[in-house]
Amino acid sequence: MNRSQSKYPSVAMMTGVSRAFDDARFTRTVLNNIDFTANAGDLVAITGPSGSGKSTFLHLLGGIDVPDHGHIAVNGMDLTSLNETGRTLFRRKHIGLVFQFFNLIPTLNVIENLRLPLELCSIRSDDSTILALLERFGLEHQAHAYPDLLSGGEQQRVAVIRATIHKPLLILADEPTGNLDDCQSRAVLDLIRQISNDGTCVIMATHSQSASEYADRHCTIKNGKLHEASQA
Amino acid sequence: MASSTKPRKPERPGSATGTLLKVFLREQKKSPGPFFLTLLSVATGVAAIVGVDITSYSALNEFERASRLSSGLATHQVVGDAAGLDESIYAAIKLDGGFPNAAPIIQADVQVNRNDRTWQLLGIDPLSDYRIRESALLGGEYTEQIETAWPIHVPNTEMWPMGSTLTLRYGNRQQQFTVAGRIFDQAGPSAMQAEGFLVTDIMWAQAFLNRAGLLTRIDLRLDSEADSRDIQMLLPGSVRLIDLQTRHTAQKDMTRAFRTNLTALGYLTLLVAMFLIYSSTVFQIARRRELLSQLRTIGYTHFEIARVLAAELSIIALAGVSTGIGLGYLLSTLMLGLVTDTINILYFELAHGTLALPIQTILKSAAMGFLGTAVAGAVPIREAGQVTVQALAKRTFEEGRALTLSRKMLPAATCCFGLGTLILMFSGQSLAIAFAGLFLLVLGPVASTPWLIDHICRALGPLAGRTLGLVAKTAVINIRSHLSRTGISVIALCLAVSASLGVALMIDSFRYSVENWITHYMRSDLYVVSTVPGEPHFSGLFRAEMETVDGIQGTGYSTRISIQSELGLHDLLAMDIGPSSFRGFMIQSPPQADLWDRFNQPRTVLITESFANRHDLSVGDDIRLPTAQGETSFEVIGIYLDYSSEHGLATLSWDNFDQYFPNPGPTTASLILQPGAISSDIRQAISNLESAPEQLLIRSNRELREQILNVFDQTFEVTDILRWLTVLVAIAGMIFSLVALQLERAALNAKLKAVGFSRTQLALQIISETSTTGFLAGLIAVPVGLTLCLSLIEVINVRSFGWTMMTHIDPMLILAAVGVSTLSAAAAGIYPAMRMWRTPITAGLRDE
User: Which among A84, A29, A86, A87 is positioned nearest to A61, based on CA atoms?
Assistant: First the structure.
């Protein structure tokens, strides 16, 4: 069964979304009249060649960018109706982002990095909760280490935990395993799988065949259009 | 079983803003370069303002202190002519007028124990003086006073213990006094504060100075205008009542232009510092591009980021302001002596006072430091907050932004230049507004420097490639692409170099004009001056004997006195000279064939250009001077160039002076020698004359010329310190931004090495890039410096000092300015080149 038609409520929805960029010589349409829906608990893999618009798709859903046409709603909130500050405030509470290059704050240690989204959302939490979370994912020994002392896989797992620690509705992951070896990739993907199983909607852009195999739904962006493969 | 331990209460969440500040401060700790540059910029700007302010304040404070010690609480003074006041006037004021608050004073410059230093001897009447000085002058250790003949009170009994003797010299007289007490200032029992004064009873002073029955002045404490009118009625025609407040204000006003010029230089340093604050803030934001992008992604709003960046900048500003106040105090210790010496040379006698750090200086400089930092940092911080997450994450953003900025700045720069020109033209007599116009006039062209460099490099790039090869071509391309990092530092360097060049050219033009004036004006071979304190006038016998010395062809005499006329306090010069010396006057007014004849006619006067400009006088106008016959009108018959007095001179013929003013004789003689006469023999012969004053200074034309030019150079030493301070700040900023830029390029250098560039080629490329940037900034600074120089000569100097000067452009100064700019920028390339040389390719690539 397609999870988009599941019992879970719709978390992310795009309607007629288009986005084009002005290059030096011409305008390049990256996404053209896209419709898309994802529900809680979905793990969606977005694939496509380089420059096809995967990152743009995630940026639009995350409120980092705005479409030229169409509407984007996350948990019922129309992001296109919000200004930059409104989108930022919405993102900090309801969306978690994971990037290929980890994007941990280099001057904060692991526990401080994980505390950051909680502080932003004014969520009361003691360090024991964060430590328990780290223990669950095998990172408790690195709690007070700075990011540059962690392996790539460890950094990405911390980044994934940071993206989920404030319990957002939607996780957007842009090439989460693009910088990791197979073993580290599996650890990260396992973690993402667990998060999805806990009911969070995860949308992941990836080049990796093995990563996309973790997903429930498979979408491809090509020539500005989104194609979803039917479920086996 | 229920757990006995209570569930742990969740910790209060940390502040997201606090965490953000922590992130930024840890970044600063990790690489503190930009932090220290911003701190240094704020500190230097504040230090310049504090230094100038403390120095001016302390010098004026010293003036106030000296006035207070000398005049006490007196509101008015009764003064006579050079011969002094008859004691009967004091009796008339006190007995006939019924004014109890009057104190007779006799005052003279004396020397102590044959030391060169001059002291002010005040002879007072203690029974009257306490009404004026409230006993403070002689208070304190009264019980320790010694009863003795010829008693004297000194400021410092450590130097001269009680009971010790001092030998005072006045003219040819000398007398031994016994230290009988200590002087205290009203401000407190600090002996140092009364430095420079010696006090004795008026009777002893009159006896020592041989002025029995005479006073220098009478100090008065008057309560109303009516009192002063009543006093006027009691005074004979040649005696004047002076309002001290008006006189002090006039004296302080004399130094206003000098102080305004110093203040303008102080603010210029702050302006250059502001560019560097802007530059380092932009650099910090560029350096944190990825971090800011991450923070925006996590959910920090632009306002939250901007707020924390502002808080971080405030911390730096606080540290910078504190450091700047300390540095400014140190700077003022260096400058106070120079400023006091300059005031001594240009305006009035002033002792080297002690430094004071007034609270208003701290508040003003702190406000200026914070305001300057806020203005300079506001734009980059606002931009950092407002850009979108993706734009912030793109490296090309900075370069694109710089080019847009440089294009946007061009119309702003043109407007700035136009507005500055208009303000300068229509600023009236206000020096402060004229300086504001001048800042804009200079800032306009300087702000377009990045745009100009971009276009010059665009034009030169292909040519450099064809003629100088790949390294030069790459260097030129890099200059253009790195303007985003270097643009503001280039503006700051260009501003500092152009300001320094403009001021240097103005000073050089001034010096050239003074030299030219001396050559015209000083036509005699020897100049004889009496330096006897109190009695510097030549006797008739000495004049007669001097004129008979063999080898002297002609003599001229002059004397100079200070008077308070309706035009304020100014000097009056009387000259007893022949027609040949009269040709030395550089007449600025329309030529008149009979000027010399008219000069010798009654009630005519020549005035200097600065006097004419200051009081808006022209030929044909009358000025009223206080003469022995009361106020008398003199017709202005000519205006001449003179650089000897900033507040101007009125010059009379000897006959006119003799007729209208008390004339105890000339104080200076100028001698024209016969051809072949030996100067040293004549000097010896004059010194050996029986009638010669005991202290005589005889100088040749060359010696006097050198002395005048030395004094001239001395008066600009303070300006030079501030000028170089500004240049040093700009150079520091330039070096920092170029070093920072080159260090950022470590990965690029590694890639270039990997594709086959040699280390020599890369080092050459780095140094050519930095030195070409400095050279172009220096080149652009030349026309700006010339414009500044012309504005200073034609507008600021005329308004400040009232005199005009010739414009003299020394090519060496221009070459030096371009050289300083080029070499400082080239020096900035050395460290990155060395670092590139040592860094292995693999390390550079790993950084990427």
Answer: A87
What pairing do the DSSP bridges indicate for beta strands A217-222 and A43-47?
A: parallel
pLDDT digits 0-9 by tens, B106-128 = 888 888 886 667 788 889 888 77
User: Given the structure tokens 């030219």, which residue do they identify?
Assistant: B516
pLDDT tens sequence across A41-63: 899 999 988 888 898 999 899 88
Sheet holding A225-229: strands in order across?
A95-98, A170-174, A201-205, A43-47, A217-222, A225-229
* pTM for this model (two decimals): 0.66
- Give 3-state DSSP helix, strand, coil % of chain B, rounded to 5: 60, 15, 25
Q: What is the DSSP letter of B139?
A: -
Would the CB atoms of A108 and B23 count as touching at under 8 Å? yes
- Into how many domains does chain A fold? 1
Q: In angstroms, what separates the C-alpha of A125 from chain B's closest C-alpha?
A: 5
CATH number at residue A187: 3.40.50.300
Note which residues in 94-133 of chain A have CB less than 8 A from chain B: 97, 99, 103-108, 112, 115-128
The ipTM assigned to this model is: 0.77
Nearest CA in chain A to B29: A107
Please tell me whether residue A213 adopts helix, strand or coil conformation.
coil
Alpha-carbon Rg of chain B, whole angstroms? 34
H or E segment and range at residue B494:
helix B483-521
Q: Which domain holds residue A93?
A: 40-65+83-228
Answer whether A125 sits within 8 Å of B11, measured CB to CB. yes
What type of residue sits at position B775?
Answer: F
Q: Indicate whether A202 belongs to any domain.
A: yes
- Grouping H, G, I as helix, E, B as strand and the rest as coil, residue B442 is helix
Alpha carbon A25 to its chain's center: 32
Using CA atoms, how far apart are residues A196 and A42, in angstroms rounded to an integer? 6
